[in-house]
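Homework help board

Subject: predicted structure for assignment chain

Our instructor gave us this sequence and asked us to write out the predicted structure in token form, then describe one feature. I got the tokens but I'm not sure how to describe them. Can anyone check?
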Amino acid sequence: MDTYSSCEKNRGRLEHRTAFSTCDIQWLYNKENWEGLVCIGAVNTIVTTKKGTTDEWHYYISSRRLSAEELLQHARLEWSVETMHWLLDVHFMEDFCRVEDENIQQSLNIIRKIVLNSIKTFKKKTKSKRPISKIMLDCLLESDNILPILMVNEN
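My token output:
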């Protein structure tokens, strides 16, 4: 079994990830139920913050041969996609949008992503600790609050 570990310190969190992968799956029960299955793996994530430590396991199947390092990279990419979807759903209730026209759906999705990225850039450049939801609410309640966000992103 291939293994790969990484350790990062982000925003006061110590994140230790260990990935395991193997393409030796002849022993795997019911593997024929997953057409094209050639690799299985797991990622163990231990996160330590001031509030304590969490320990999570995520399990993966793949139709590609992946080293443990590649598995970890793919898993991180998937988490970033899920994070963006979560933000879109939480801040824009995207899952409840009932627009049926595909072009309008795509346009709204692009606009929502532009707004989120603009606010993230504003937060980063101004070192703001305010949550995205509070910044968005301020902009809704007072339209003059939008201008600083647009100006920071203009540069």
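Reply (TA_rk): Your tokens look well-formed. For the description, you could write something like this. The longest strand covers residues 39-49. That's the kind of observation they're looking for.
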